[in-house]
Write a structure and sequence with these properties.
mainly beta, OB fold (Dihydrolipoamide Acetyltransferase, E2P), 5-stranded antiparallel β-sheet, 1 helix, globular
């Protein structure tokens, strides 16, 4: 898809019972004051009805989030991302899709 899905490996993925998890930019809640993962805005693209925000997330790497309208952030701002757990995609070590995320899966 476009924009592409964000992929996360390591401890966060293992907490969701996978080798890798994927989350689409539109399934990440973006906040300027609280959330699950925090990071620094590297690029903010205001495109009318959407704002695409590239965030260097602590311990994860660069992630792309899509917010509505003129989301008020700029390069260098601190933001927080929270994934919609029910929208996570799980993959094994061969890249094969696994079943949906189990209730209570941990993504912190």
């Amino acid at each position: 898809g476009s924009p592409r899905m964000n992929f996360i490996e390591g401890e966060i993925a293992r907490g969701a019972g996978a080798d890798c998890i994927g989350i689409r930019p539109e399934h990440l809640a973006l906040s300027t004051d609280s959330g699950l993962w925090s990071g620094t805005v590297t690029v903010s693209e205001h495109l009318g009805s959407d704002t695409f925000v590239y965030v260097q997330v602590d311990g994860i790497g660069t992630m792309l989030a899509r917010a509505g309208g003129e989301f008020p952030v700029h390069h260098g701002d601190r933001v927080w991302l929270t994934p919609q757990t029910e929208k996570l995609h799980r993959f094994d070590d061969q890249g094969n899709a696994l079943h949906s995320v189990a209730a209570g899966a941990k993504v912190a």
